[in-house]
Amino acid sequence: MFNYSHIKHRNMFLQIFLVIITLGLYGIYWFHVTLGELQRANNRGPEVGRWRWTIFFCIPLIDFFSFWHYAGEYSQFVRDKYPRALIFILWIVFFPAVWFLVQLDLNRAASYHF
């Protein structure tokens, strides 16, 4: 049995509202926090390069490395239900789809520990 007690359930509509109000800053926060949750769920610990990947996320062109890393963590979290390459391409083409997929699966995992 997996322990997902560290994963927080987040309201999708509230997140959209927060992204709009903070002019996108909440998106950076969400990336940082959910990357930590994915890493911990994948037994890597919560701080394995998370700050580095978040900084890379904010730098044009270098952000592709961050997208690739995040896609790998997410793909492993969902046991390859979505291949890493697909998630990476979605990050580039239509990032809200990744946000929706990741948060949906994290919310499912969060509901397991209740």
Distance between the termini: 14 Å
Radius of gyration from CA coordinates: 13 Å
The total of beta strands comes to 0
Low-confidence stretches: none
Main structural class: mainly alpha
- For the record, the count of structural domains works out to 1
Shape category:
globular
Overall mean pLDDT stands at 92
State the share of residues found in helices, binned by percent. 55-70%
Structure description:
The chain is mostly helical. The protein has one domain (12-112). The protein is 68% helix and 0% strand. It contains six helices and no strands. Helix 4 (63-77) packs across helix 5 (84-93). 25% of the residues are buried.
Summarize the structure.
This protein is mainly α and 114 residues long. The chain contains six helices and no strands.
